[in-house]
Amino acid sequence: MSEKYMEMWKNLGMDIEKHNQLLGILGQYYTAVYLSQKNRPKSMGYFDFVVSEIHGLRIKELNDQRAKGNKVVGAFCIYAPEELTYAANATMVGLCGGADFSVPDAEAILPRNLCPLIKSFYGFKLNRTCPYFQSSDLVVGETTCDGKKKVYELVNELIPTYVLEIPHKPDTQKGKEFWYKELEAFQAEIEKLTGNKITAEKLKASIELINNKRKALKRLQDLRAKNPSPISGLDALLIFQISFNDDPVRFTAKVNELCEELEERVHNGVGVTSKDAPRIMISGCPMAIPNWKLHSIAQAAGASVVVEESCVGTRYFTDVVEPKGESLHDLLWAIVEKYSQIPCACFTPNNKRLDSITTLAKQFGAQGVIYYTLQNCHDYNVEGIKVERALKVEGLPMLKIETDYTMGDSEQIKTRVEAFLEIIEGKKAH
Amino acid sequence: MSEKYMEMWKNLGMDIEKHNQLLGILGQYYTAVYLSQKNRPKSMGYFDFVVSEIHGLRIKELNDQRAKGNKVVGAFCIYAPEELTYAANATMVGLCGGADFSVPDAEAILPRNLCPLIKSFYGFKLNRTCPYFQSSDLVVGETTCDGKKKVYELVNELIPTYVLEIPHKPDTQKGKEFWYKELEAFQAEIEKLTGNKITAEKLKASIELINNKRKALKRLQDLRAKNPSPISGLDALLIFQISFNDDPVRFTAKVNELCEELEERVHNGVGVTSKDAPRIMISGCPMAIPNWKLHSIAQAAGASVVVEESCVGTRYFTDVVEPKGESLHDLLWAIVEKYSQIPCACFTPNNKRLDSITTLAKQFGAQGVIYYTLQNCHDYNVEGIKVERALKVEGLPMLKIETDYTMGDSEQIKTRVEAFLEIIEGKKAH
Q: Which of A117, A317, B227, B417 has the most CB atoms around its CB within 10 Å?
C-alpha cells in the first residue's frame, strides 16, 4: 500500500516515516488477531479489505470528495450529529484514537494519568500519522468527559475544533431544549463550513441514510443472539469500528450482505464456537480501531463475545431517529430524542444504562459481563459500581477490567478472564 | 471537647470511636502547623477558636437551628447557590473532604485512581465522622467534574443529594439561560425542603449577607498585596476555609476586625516574613480543611504565599452579586452573572482563568506560581498546560505539583519547592 499512496500522504502533511512504522505494526497485528480466526463468514472479506485500505483507498475517496469542494468532519463520539453533517454534503469520519503508538508523543505534553483514548488521539494529531485527522476540515468535539473536553482545547490549536455541549442530566425538558439549541448552533457551523444550506428535505434524506446504517448494524447484532453465534465478537467489533470510517451507503449494503450469509449460517446451525462456549457481554468504554485487546484475550480464552454495550456497539445503533413530522424543527427534535436515548456514563443519574445492560444480557443470553474501563475514565469506572450491583440482582457475574492500550497487562488480564470463565462454567454445571 | 459534645455526636449517628481518632489527629496537626507560626495577628485567636470548636460548638449551633425547624444544606462547590439557601432560612455549610483519614474507607468501594477530595468526602459520609454531613438535611452537588458528578449518585444513597447542572461553555447566552433555569429549579427544591417561600425581599437580604462576607474576604486578600504581607498564607487559607463553615454574620465581623489589625500592621510596616521572601501564588484545585500540606511546605521553605487562585480563595470572593433591579427575576439573573464569572477549570475554553491568574500575579506581586493539582483531576491537570504558557509570556516561572492528601511525597515536594524558590531568588539577583 505504501508506495501507491505516498504522494497523497505527503500532500496531507503526514510524517511518512512514522506512518510507515504504524502501518507495519497494524498489518502484523491484524494478521495475528483477525486472519488467524477459524470459520469466518466469507463476507468478512470486504471488511478485511476495508481495513487493509483504511489509510489508503478510503483516504483517497475522502480527498477526491474534498477536491470537489465537499468537506470532511472528524469526530470521536456518537453524539457528534452525523445526520446534520451529511445533510450539508459533508462526510463524518471517526478519528484515530485506539492505539498506543501515538501515546508517547502525547505524553510529552499531556499528563500521563489521562485516559489512553484521549492521549492516543492527541498524539495522532501531534505526530501526523492519522490520515483522517489530516483529511478533516473540522473536528467536532463534545463535553462528555473532563479529559476530552479539556484536550479538545489543545486539539483546536492544531486543527479547527467545534465543541458541542451535552447536558448531563438526562431526560429533563430543559436539557433537551438546550441540546436542541446546540444542534441549531452546530447546523449554523456546518452550513458555514460547507457553504450548503441544510433543508428539511436534505436532513430527512440523511436521517434515512444513517438510520439504514444503524438498522443494518442492529440486524447484525440481533443475529448474535443465536447459539452458537454465527459471527465472532472480534469480527462484529471490527464492523462496528469500521462503521465510523466507511462510506455509509456501501457499508450498509455490505453489512446487509453479511447478515444474509449469517442468516444462512443460523438456518444451518453453523456458528463460530461450540454451543457450550461461555457467552460474554463486554460493557463499558468505546474501543476505537485497532483496540482489539480485550476481545482477542476473551476469545482466545474460549469465550463467545456476543454483545458490546458500548458506543462502538449497541449504544450507536439500538435506536434510530424517528421524526414525528417533516419540518426542520421536527427533524431536529427527532435527533434530540434519539441522541437522548444513548446511555453514556456522562449522564447523572444514568439508570437507563443499568436497564439497558440487564436487558441486553437477557436478549443475547450473556452468562457474564466483562466491564471494560479505560484507565482514568472516571465516568465508566465509577458507574461500574452500580452496574455490578444491577447485574448481581440478575444473578450475573461481572469482571471489571481497567486497562490501557499497552500489552504489558495482557497476561494478567488473560488469567483473570480465564478464572472468570471458569466461574461461569461452574455455575452452568450446577 | 470530646465529653461535652458526646451526646450530640451520638444523636447525629456518628462513629464515636473513629471520630475521636480523627479529632486527635486534627488537634496535633493544627498545633504543629498553625500554632507554631511566629508573629501571628492577635485577631487570629478567634479563628483558632473556631477550628478548635469546628466539630463542637458550630455543630451545636447548627443543630439548635435545626431543632427550631431550620434546615442545613451541605455542599462542596462555590456554585452551590448560597444566596438562595439563606433566603429560605437555611444554612449552607461546607462538608468534610480535605483529609486522608476517610480515604481508605472510600476505597473499599470507589476506584483508587480518583481525586482525593472525592474519595475523602465519600469516605466521611460512609464512616460517619463528619458532623456536617450528619447535620445536613440535603447535600447540593453539581456537575463540575466527572468524579464528583458520578460519586454524588452514591452519596445520594446515604443522604438526599440534589445535583445542579453547570453549563460548561461559559459566557454563552444559552448557557446562562440554562443556569437561570437550574437556579429556579433549585429554588423550588429548597422551598420544598424548608417550607419557606423565597421572596425578592428575602433574596435581596441574603445576597447582601453573602456579599458582605465576600467583601470582607476580598478586603483581607487585598492586604496581602503589601510587602511584607501582614498575614501568612497559612492563616489566610484557614480563613478562606472557615468561611464555608462559620456563621456568616459573625464570621464577616471577625474578618473585618482582623483586617483592621492588619491595616495597622501595614501602617507600621509589620509583616510575617522579611521583605525579601519570595512571593508565591498558589493556583489550582480547592483545598478543603484540613488540607494545609502545600502551604506549610512552601512556608517552611521560606516562601511568602500571597494569593490562592482557587475556589477556596479568589474565585469565591473576587466578584459579588450585583442586582440590576429588585424583582426575583433580576436577583436570580444577578446570581447567574456572578457565578458565571467564576473561572472554574470545568469551563471550555477557560481563557478567563488565564487572564485572572496573570492579573492576580501582578496585583499581588507574585514572583512565581505553584500550580496545584489534586491527583486524577483532569480539568485542572490539563488546564495547567495553558496556565504555564500564559505565565511564561509574563516571565513568571511555574512549578506544577500533583499530589494527594497523604504525606508520603512531602519530602519530595519540599525539595522541588526549595529548588523553585532558588530559581526565583536567582532571577531577582540578576
A: A117
Residue B369: helix, strand or coil by DSSP?
Answer: strand
Check if the interface score ipTM surpasses 0.90. Answer: yes
Residue of B nearest to A114 (CA): B378
Instruction: Determine the 3-state secondary structure of A396 from DSSP.
Output: coil
- Distance, CA of B373 to CA of A329 (rounded, Å): 44
Using CA atoms, how far apart are residues A348 and A167, in angstroms rounded to an integer? 10
Residues of chain B with pLDDT under 50: none
Rg of chain A, C-alpha, whole Å: 21
Is the CB of residue B165 less than 8 Å away from at least one CB of chain A?
yes
Return the C-alpha torsion angle A314, A319, A320, A323, nearest 10.
-160
∠ CA A45-A47-A49, rounded to 5°: 70
Between A and B, how many CB-CB pairs are < 8 A? 117
Specify the pLDDT at position A209. 98
B374 to chain A, closest Cα gap in Å: 12
DSSP code of B89? Answer: T
Amino acid found at B148: K
What does pLDDT average to over chain A? Answer: 97
Distance CA B32, CA B25 (A): 11
Written as nine digits, the cell of A68 is 470537489
**Which residues in chain A have their CB less than 8 angstroms from residue B161's CB?**
none
Query: Residues in chain B, how many?
Result: 430
Under 8 Å between Cβ of A183 and A81: yes
Which of A263-288 are b and which e, b meaning 16 or more Cβ less than 10 Å from the residue's Cβ? eebbeeeebbbeeebbbbbbbbbbbb
Q: Dihedral (C-alpha) B214, B382, B170, B216: value to the nearest 10 degrees?
A: 10
Which of the 8 DSSP states describes residue A193?
H
pLDDT digits (tens, 9 = 90+) for B208-228: 999 999 999 999 999 999 999
Burial class (CB in 10 A: 0-12, 13-18, 19+), B168: buried
